[in-house]
Amino acid sequence: MAILVTGGAGYIGSHTCVELLNAGYEIIVADNFSNSKLEVLDCIREITGRNFTFYKADLLDKEALNTIFEENEVKAVIHLAGLKEKFPEKSLWYYHQNLISTLILCEVMESHQVKTLVFSSSAAVYGLSEKVPIDEERLLGATSPYGQTKQMIEEILRDMYESDREWSFVFLRYFQAIGVHKSISIGQELYNLSNKLLSDIFQAEVGKTSELSISLGVDGVMANDYIHVVDVATGHVKALKGALRSKSLQVYNLGTGRGYCDLELVTTFEKVSGRKIPYKIISEYPGDNGVRCVDPTKAKLELGWAAERGMEEMCGDSWRWLVHLSNELKEK
Fold first, then answer.
1. What is the mean pLDDT of residues 218-239?
2. What homologous superfamily does CATH list for 181-224+257-291+309-331?
3. Residues 158 and 210 sit within 8 Å (Cβ to Cβ)
4. Is pTM beyond 0.70 here?
């Protein structure tokens, strides 16, 4: 039996597939390439030395999903497919794509008696929080269309569990994944860089901007809980093991337990790259106040998971990936 990974060709999805295959799982990947490329699948095969089944499918296509379940023995699903936090002005699009696709997925899973789901949620469901680090018991209050769809999906799945305790759900909440696999063969494409600062650093690398603008937030308080994408991927594997062990609904934060300010990120990039990155300090961007970081204690105690990679490794891998993208552009 196999694990279906929706969005398995995406940034976090591809790294999760690598960790699943390395852990000995059989996988099936479903992706419509809205946030990814076909070549990523060959990179996953090359990294792991293993093959897997792939379907080009949109989760809004119920017939295509049914085909996947009819043609394969699916044991569980890791749900990573969905629109990313890049288009805040397209709220209706977010709701349609992220909510309806998840409803269709759950309907198909239920009809085939597959009731184990790891949902890749987001720490965006917490909204603005005055107290950090944020634990899993904190009241939810998403403030963006992206975060609200994640929160709504959690609520839908929670209602499903309350009405049918045969389901097993795990929700994973995390902030900003960065870094890439050590092979430097899979990562976020340039058009998909969701972090503005990373995008600005890339623009500086290719000479499209002369100076970065770094915000220290209101009163100098601004920090993000960055986490290496491989740590996020191993978190999904650990969560899957937990979901398969018992029928329950569990929520886990994935993070380092501390926030890193933009200036710390840039100076670490300078250290790992050996290059000076020109920047200026600005007072604040709108909405920049606060420290965003989660408490990962529960994941450590119950899943045996902990982030293993620090900021230097996150930045080092990210820098090598940005250089890789830059070289690809120059070749074109």
1. 85
2. UDP-galactose 4-epimerase, domain 1 (3.90.25.10)
3. no
4. yes
